[in-house]
Description:
Strand order of the largest sheet: 3-4-2-1-5-6
Largest sheet: 6 strands, parallel
Radius of gyration: 18 Å
Number of helices: 7
Order of helices and strands: EHHEHEHEHHEEH
Strand content: 5-15%
Structural class: alpha/beta
Oligomer: single chain
Amino acid sequence: MAETTPVFPNHIAIIMDGNGRWATKRGMSRLDGHLAGFNTIHDIVRYLGEIEQVKYATFYAFSTENWNRPEAEIKSIFNILNESIAHEAAELHENNVRILWLGRAEGLPPKLVQNINDAVSLTSRNSGMTLALALNYGGRQEITDTLKRIVAEGVPAELIDEKLIAKYLYTADMPDVDLLIRTADELRISNFLLWQLAYAEFYFTPELWPDFNRADMDKAIRAYRERKRRFGGL
């Protein structure tokens, strides 16, 4: 495939790192860091909604590996998520944003699950930007669940190809990721969207997530637009 010069990324995925380090640098609690991080999500989502060419945004809110954190911190994260989703859903709906949830319900507080499902239902017919929250999510878990569903439905082996597998993923009605952003100078993908990142452009920044702002997003998009996407070609 001939190389192409990207215009704007259609789908941006973000791994949000650095909440704890941001708080520690300021002599604050990790809870304060997570609160600041969620405020950043709010601002970045609103900004991406203003960029017409960006149709999909996926945020890594809580991974399957995050269960290894202290119980008190996990509870605080869930409380913040619960309140944020409950308060933000109506505004997102008014702005024609569609909310999707990528992940499993097992282990999550019932109230949080209910609020997420309500937000997904409320916004399901919206035609603006799609906001996907990867919550209790793991890329290997997603692929495992996908294969289980295919086997359970008795799909013949000869019919299984990449297009069919994509239809069974959590992201079934979303395109692959064009641009992955990870903050706090971390250089891993950490079990995030393993299938969907196959041809994504990666952008790493030293900015801690609570400090990541609209100018930083512009810088990431500008870096993406300066690259040549060859998709395996010369």
